[in-house]
Amino acid sequence: MPQQQQLIASKFEEFRRIAIPADASGIQVQDMQMAFYSGVTALFSIILELLEPGIDAADSDSKVASIHGELQAFSSMIEKMHLAESQKEPPAARGAISGAIKCPYCGHHSIIPGQSSVMAS
Fold first, then answer.
1. Least CB-packed of 20, 56, 82, 120 within 10 Å?
2. How many other C-beta atoms are found inside a 10 Å radius of the C-beta of residue 103?
3. pLDDT category of residue 103 using cuts at 50, 70 and 90
């Protein structure tokens, strides 16, 4: 029997190369992997619900459109956040930010632990 493809694992590795700094700690990588797989699990459960017998095609289409809309909204939010951050003055002009965590999507800005605000780095 051929070995099963590791589709999710390969997508995580792709995500890791793009979004997780090469010098990230093992704990950070593990936390990101946990979050990644949690998202995949949630989406997979929605997909399984859509495949159940007797589910109305219009309802399924509506849910797929809703998923697509949520993903587009998230992507747009990230793009706007990155644009806003790129237009701020450089961190050297503001001074160092203690305890900042780099954005897992691009590494261009930092999130201050315990605060909801986002700061450029």
1. 56
2. 20
3. low
